[in-house]
Amino acid sequence: MSKWVLLLGGSTGHGAATAKRLSRDGYGIIAFHFDRGEAKKIAEETISEVNEITKGHCHYFNTNAASEESMDKYIPKIKEITKGAPLKLLLHSIAFGTTTNFFGKKPVTQRQMDMTVHVMGNSLLYWTQKLYGEKLLASGSRVLGLTSEGNYLAMEGYGPVSVAKVAMEAIIRQIGWELGEFGITANAVQAGITPTRALTKITENWEDWVESTKKRNPMRRTTTPEDVASTISMLLKAEADFINCSIIYCDGGESRSGAF
Predict the structure, then answer these.
(1) Which of the four, 126, 133, 223, 241, has the lowest number of CB atoms within 10 Å?
(2) Domain 4-251 architecture
(3) Which residues contact 199 (CB under 8 A, 6 or more apart)?
(4) What is the pTM of this model?
């Protein structure tokens, strides 16, 4: 295996779909997940499928990918897996943070805000810095993050995640600006409302969100993880070498069709 991708969050939702798609594209999969209980069972099913598709060229680590300790512990292992070859992709698909309002019965705390912004935003910068320092990102490598229209719309309980997404977009823009001269690009993929496990954690009214989305989306359906995985697959092609510092919309036009 000469081509490897690294997925931060590769066991469920968008990350799982991307792992399966890129496996079929011929990439070896290195992924992190942080699953317990029922989510761990879903993760194990994903890992089994990806392992079968890649014929064993699949390495999943169940640990907190956002911690510096994990980065320092596992980056040498990643370098060993790729035999020093640079990664084709670093994808940030971690969906873990606090979903609550800024005011009300349970207003967000500083600790919750700091954690959410770090895990869902800043951690991408630190991974990129460390991988680049170890020459695991080079010409042709992609850095991608997942964002949503919550980056510019106010939504019930979404405030902390919204702040994190905006931070991540700024980080991605700056990474692409600084590393573009070396052939390393950085972009964000903005997905539409997607019925995933993560969505059910954002709001109790997620079913209403889904039905509302179907009505306002020009294509009369919600986004699927497979839609996002296909977009990421496309962005890894040589034809996408000049796409940099951008937000790529994968939502069927949803973000252009009026208020949520």
Answers:
(1) 133
(2) 3-Layer(aba) Sandwich (3.40)
(3) 193, 206, 209, 210
(4) 0.93
